[in-house]
Amino acid sequence: MSNEKRGIKVIALFFFLIVCSSLSGVGAFSLDAAGATSAELCPRDTGLFVSSLRNDNPEVMQFTLSRKGSASGWSTTVPTGVVLGPGEQEAVYTYVTPTQGVLPGNYDLEVVAAGAGEVKTSSFGVRVKDCFGAALGTAEPVRNACPGQVVKFEARLRNAGVYREDFIVRVEGPLKEGVSLSDDVVSLASGEAKTVFAYVVAPVVANEYGVSVIASGSSGRSVESLNFVLKVQPCYDFRVEVEEKTAQEFCEATSKVVPLKVVNVGTTTNTFDLRLGGPSWVVLDKNTLTLLAGQSTNLNIMMAPAFGVEGDFKVKVEVIPQRGDQKAVAEVAVRVRKCHDVALQVLEKEVTVCNNGRERSYPVVLKNTGTMEKKYLVTVTGPSWVSADLPGMVELGPGRERNASLRVNPGQSVQPGAYDIVLKVNASDESAVTVSDSAVFVVNAVDTKECYKPLLESQYEDLVVYLDSNVVVPVTVQNRGLEPAEYELVVGGSAATFVSLAPAVVSVDPGRTETVYMYVAPGAGARPGLFDVQVAARLKDSTVLGAKSWRVRLTDVKEDATVIGGAQASEGSFWSRLKALLKRWFVAPEIVEEVKLQAENESEPVVGNGAKEGSSSNFFERYRYWILGAIIFVLLIVIIVRTDAHKKVGDFFSEDDDDE
Fold this sequence. Notes:
single chain, mainly beta, Immunoglobulin-like, five-stranded mixed β-sheet, 7 helices, elongated, disordered C terminus
């Protein structure tokens, strides 16, 4: 038991010695500042801090050296590591060099030594100074000037830093484009100064303007600016005033004066040049003006448009000062009315007349379209058979008109053709050159033949006539001339002995048509053969104006004869064609011919076979077709009544009565 207690005591004593041995190493080295603990430096200057590292441990120790703090980024410590025996010591050097970008201010730095699990520090302080600077100054920060004047500003630049530095000089502000510098780059030693000149052209508009001169050091650490004020005075200001309305309206051939006023509101005497823009009838009474400061004067725009001037115009007066760049423009809108005018109107521009000596009249209107009472001279130029019922001088008030007639009376001696008649009217005063009008009236004169030109037409060109019959041929007479005509119709040709006309005299208006009838009735002694007939139209005691010819063939074969009116019947309505068909089927051809001749000639019926009308021997032979037709007709009546077509039947017989 005692042996066990003794062993435990030995073990406890062993551990106690180990702990004491380890505790004896704490605080076995030291790191202390061996000189100054602070420094004041400019950027790129170098400072040195010295620390003393000592090993107080009885054993050899290894140390690692480093830095921390706001100045550690631009500092260096040497050596970075060291081994010291018991009691040995070593000097540790820390170099401090602020970079160009380091701002002025206070920075801290700690040198750190680490060894055997223990860390010791040595603290230092660094103040970075503002070692770059510039100063700008002037004796005259405010200058007065007139527009366009060149002003010189002086800026005194001094290097307020401790090093030589290059300064870049520039200008800012609304006038920088118009500023010139004597120096763009200035190199100065510490404390050295130089004057830089800024030349400024004063603007045209009077106002206050700011100009800034800025000097920037090449180090980027020094920037200085200086503000100047340029007060531009209204030395050359002026104004132009239109004394009356800027819109003027008046008549041609009148004078108008519009006054202008020019006022020199500047601070110096000035001369003004005047330029006029506008039509040639506008002038200025002055071309140049010289005015003292505050003085004013008038000038006149004089306008005198001649006769015939009309429309809207712009008149512009430009005032240009000899001193200063500001210009002024005065504009006047002018409307010139045409107050002297005339209008001549011929209602018909071209006519065609007959040279038959009959007078015709055509309306003419003369109107004063101006605003002034006027006398006008009227002339008519043309052949002697043309005149106007206007006096040589016509007086009309504004807007009034005069109605007249142009009389045309060509005689038979006038040659056919076109004649130009020129009517002209002029003012009787000095405005005659422009106040005038004219009109051209064309008269186409035609001779008697063209004036009463007839056209004779017929549906039938050639006729075949049965010897023992007579026919009536309708003939149309159309007046294609210009005047109403009374035509005398004359029959000629080899057939004239058995041809006659009714009526023989016919009156026809222009463009109208009348119908006459040519009656062909061969006589007892007529023989088959070919004949011709002409119908001519003429005026009383005139030559033939128009004619129509036919060939007439007389035949003894009744079937060859021309059926007058058959073409029209075949071209009628459906019911007309049906009735004609029934007649051809059920009525004897001789009876048809007899009925036609009776209707057209209003004479006694002629039976083609020579039988007398009252004969009873051949009654059924002559009327067999009538009897058969009557039977069929009755049957048709029955059918029509049963089919409710009685209206058609009524129309049927109505048309039949009309045809007959």
